[in-house]
């Protein structure tokens, strides 16, 4: 390339990974100063190079990675004087690379525009100011011809996931996400057609295509045949085989840790206790079933049984053995995922929280008590990570020691926990937690973080307001016996995690938002622990937060929490909230007390969703007396058992608080439950006359709520976006007879619905007329926003995760209208 350019009088240097650092710097300096016209870089300068003057990028190497493509493109995207635009010349794209690169650019706008609609000229991306995607007419015609015909949902989702991640999803992952690889001609036939097989995988596939077809299509009245293969793979014996005794025991261990697979042997008369079979009986049973099935008849070409050993006769090619095993593992995982789904017990586990602990070497997860949570999952369970990737967690009686992405053998739970919490994850002295959230489509896992553990709690005086505390400043709030002084009429007592016996401390609730900001915010409702500072000068509390007395022109005293600051020769009283202005101290300004500690009510309670027997409730909240409805230890508790007490999943009807900024701990127990569920801290909403708290889970809302909807509250901005979408759809429908077609999905817009949504149907031969509501559209818009920000696939599962409270069963969702709303959103770009 350098020689070709030199023949055309283009001054060019070449740099590679072998080029010395000084020569690399010299080449970049020459380009920056104009001594060179171009630099040919081989596997260098994809990132970390700042050359704003670069106005042309020529791509001469193929890449399937969207990340690498954007890095290469980014070398020319810096602004510079005299540079009106960037020219990109791509010489190496095959048909899929061309399509994916245009699709990737279209995904960078406010809403991803379907490639088909863009090429047809019906949709334009809403890119940042000054940005556009322009394709010459000849290239548009070529790209149209390269578009796949009749793209199915599984193909669409596969390509979107590949673009989002830079790597292809597995067959098992696609199935767990709700898509059906069985609709394809063959999984690896499809993957090969997408140019996603690596060179060694291509060798393995071409040599063993019949084997992979067998794996995808072999009948499975039970799980046994796939269990045999999984056991061989786990033992690294797919090429060599195993003695029958060893193989049979490994297979039983696999079945025992998966409840859906254990069903296959629970009804067998030979095994009164399926978890502890008589081993000779088990050996004969295993030989009669999957071993015979794999070694006799048409399938006998793949395995043989000799001298009590199960021996593979698989078509492995030297140099591609690892690829063959990995591809076999992928299809075994896919087939077992389908089988487990058919066998799965009704209803998902509820949401729960686990503590990260350790096994003397690596971090693991400690499960809640199964006595309190009989619904906890057991054995191998599909769980989605925060980015939507599917994992399999292995839940035992008390712990979860193993978790891995689907299709991967190696345990990656320690790596996952250390990624979330750092190298100290699970170590003694830490208190990291992980939340498993139940959604209509299964469990999602996410880190909760460090749960603060306070020391033991002591009694200190508490005042209902700053004014009441200031009024007690002249009187000791403690009497000689260490009890609240009866002469301080408004002094009460609260148990907080403070040093015992320190008579200089007292507590008061923070009220308002003036100190809610900065690195150490004080929120409305927080407990503020202060130390008396009677008679202190302002200079002694410089840069500290203090309870201050100020008097106005007529001598009326006011009391506030402020930070005392000395600036430009003046004493200022400053709020943590930057929106609240400073004001100057006067001669009448007096410190009453100095802040020692801020305690959030949430930090005084166990994790939300924890379950407790009644006799263990006091210790869970650091108290030494039984809990009751009302005030205990200076804290307000709501023990809710009556139906219809909750007016929404996050609203409780109880009397207003008797103290400013007071919060309440909410616990619930339905009529048929033995344990109490902690639901979180509630705060009074004056505008609604209700208490606001973290949303309930589905079982609690179903038992104690007064409504039917299990939907969370939709943000106003998404409701506004949905309204705009309706207008856009109605306008577009007037020009297309109402039809919306997008990547295999078709529906017809009929009219505006009475409450603002849309009336739709499937046409003369399609589904009957129905309403897609503004709320349906708004939640899909919210999911699209989340998808853009977090790189997660936009689909029904994501919408359900965001929209519905934990534990909501699929049948209680608007899943049909969610699908229609997704079609509407993808077919028309909202303004």
3D structure, described in words:
The protein is of the alpha+beta class and 831 residues long. Helices cover 31% and strands 22% of the residues. β3 (56-59), α3 and β4 form a beta-alpha-beta unit.
Helical content (DSSP H or I, runs of 4+): 25-40%
Enumerate the strands of the largest sheet in spatial order, edge to edge or round the barrel.
16-15-17-18-23-19-20-21-22
Q: What ranges have pLDDT less than 50 throughout 5 or more consecutive residues?
A: none
End-to-end Cα distance, whole Å, is 45 Å
> What general outline do the C-alpha atoms trace?
globular
What number is the mean pLDDT? 85
Q: Count the beta strands.
A: 35
Q: Using the CA coordinates, give the radius of gyration.
A: 33 Å
Number of helices: 23
The percent range for strand residues is: 15-25%
Major sheet details: 9 strands, mixed
Keywords:
831 residues; alpha+beta; nine-stranded mixed sheet; eight-stranded mixed sheet; 23 helices; globular
Give a brief description.
With 831 residues, the protein is α+β, with helices and mostly antiparallel strands. 31% of the residues lie in helices and 22% in strands. The protein is built from 23 helices and 35 strands.
